[in-house]
Specification:
With 316 residues, the chain is α/β, with parallel strands linked by helices. The protein has two domains: 119 residues, 3-Layer(aba) Sandwich (Rossmann fold); 149 residues, Response regulator (Rossmann fold, 3-Layer(aba) Sandwich), CATH 3.40.50.2300. Helices cover 46% and strands 21% of the residues. It is built from eleven helices and twelve strands. The strands form two sheets. A six-stranded parallel sheet has the order 2-1-3-4-5-11, with helices on both faces. Helix 5 runs parallel beside helix 6, helix 7 crosses helix 8 and helix 9 packs antiparallel against helix 11. The longest helix is centred in the N-terminal third of the chain and has 22 residues. The radius of gyration is 22 Å and the shape is elongated. Bound molecules: beta-D-galactofuranose. The site of beta-D-galactofuranose has 14 residues, from helix 2 and strand 9.
């Protein structure tokens, strides 16, 4: 048989196996998603749906619109439907013990994705997420270098009580505390939304007489930074120049802002993480039960130097 025929036979065999494994692993998975508050969240949701489709997973997707009570309702509905597994991206870290115990009693494995809970780790299989504290440290280190350790900072916090807001703040402060002339002079939550970031920045501009003596804006996500950039421009300020900016997510519009000279740095948070999450869930359902309690997704910082390349990578 010619080489080509061998390759075709192998390809057909592989496709059949893949088909078999897909049908054999056709599972129903419930996914309780935070909401659609940011470009990153929207991209993450799209990736979770596309990857489930690719793997023949029946995904029960629930958008909680950033309300914990909606997430708790969704998880209880998944339990009632007797799904094969439950994935939760928790809007805040507290309030999960009871529903996690109910899922455990129903023998449905739970996986925490993207964010984190304060609950006992025995109540879920594992957490597949980035290191928010590291993201805060990367942002703080970049600003220390960019400002030569001399900077009054205004901070746009994420959703109060959420793991990324708690840990990004801790990581950022751990680094700037090493520099006596770096301090956060204003800090308030914009709830991870563009409109929230704009409103808070407008109040900061008013309270500091047009960001007088303010050297930088630190935002826990890009959407709040994009709102802050709008507010600074409307006040006649030059974000990215008069005021340094650093945020997290690495969404396409922040790279566009960098190319326009209006943003200086963003720590990328990978949004195409459905493959990692489903690998873990499907691995567990097939019998692999020795996952660590945290499957870490890497993050790295980007600046205008590679903004064009990152924008292309993000399909922007
Ligand atoms: C972090 C993620 C955060 C993003 C925000 O992993 O949960 O939530 O940084 C989103 O854009 O709102």
């Amino acid at each position: 048989m010619s080489i080509l025929k061998h390759m075709l036979a192998a390809a057909v065999g592989a496709a059949a196996l893949a088909g078999l494994s897909a049908s054999a692993s056709a599972q129903t998975i419930g996914f309780s998603q935070v909401g659609s508050e940011s470009d990153w969240r929207t991209a993450f949701s799209a990736d979770m749906k596309a990857e489930a489709e690719k793997r023949g997973i029946k995904l029960q997707f629930s958008d909680a619109q950033q309300k914990e009570e909606n997430q708790l309702k969704a998880v209880r509905s998944f339990i009632a439907q007797k799904v094969d597994a439950i994935i939760i991206a928790p809007v805040v870290v507290t309030g999960w013990d009871q529903v996690l115990k109910e899922a455990q009693a129903a023998k449905i494995p739970v996986f925490i994705a993207d964010r984190a809970v304060e609950s006992d780790p025995s109540l879920f299989v594992t957490r597949i997420a980035a290191d928010f504290n590291l993201e805060g440290r990367l942002a703080g280190a970049w600003l220390a270098q960019a400002s030569k350790g001399n900077c009054n900072i205004v901070e746009l916090q994420g959703t109060v009580g959420s793991a990324p807001a708690i840990e990004r703040k801790k990581g950022f402060e751990a680094v700037i505390s090493l520099f006596p002339n770096m301090k956060i002079v204003k800090s308030q939550s914009g709830n991870f939304t563009t409109s929230g970031g704009k409103e808070v920045m407008e109040s900061f501009i008013k309270a500091t007489d047009g960001l007088k003596d303010v050297c930088a804006v630190w935002a826990h996500n890009d959407n709040m930074m994009l709102g802050a950039i709008q507010a600074m421009k409307e006040a006649g300020l030059k974000p990215g120049k008069d005021v340094l900016t650093v945020s997290v997510d690495g969404v396409p519009d922040i790279f566009k802002a960098m190319l326009a000279g209006e943003s200086d740095a963003s720590v990328e948070l990978k949004s195409d993480i459905g493959k990692y999450i489903y690998d873990v869930v499907q691995g567990y359902l097939k019998g692999k039960h020795d996952y660590p309690k945290w499957v870490l997704i890497p993050s790295d910082l980007h600046t205008p130097a590679d903004a064009a390349e990152m924008l292309k990578k993000k399909g922007g």
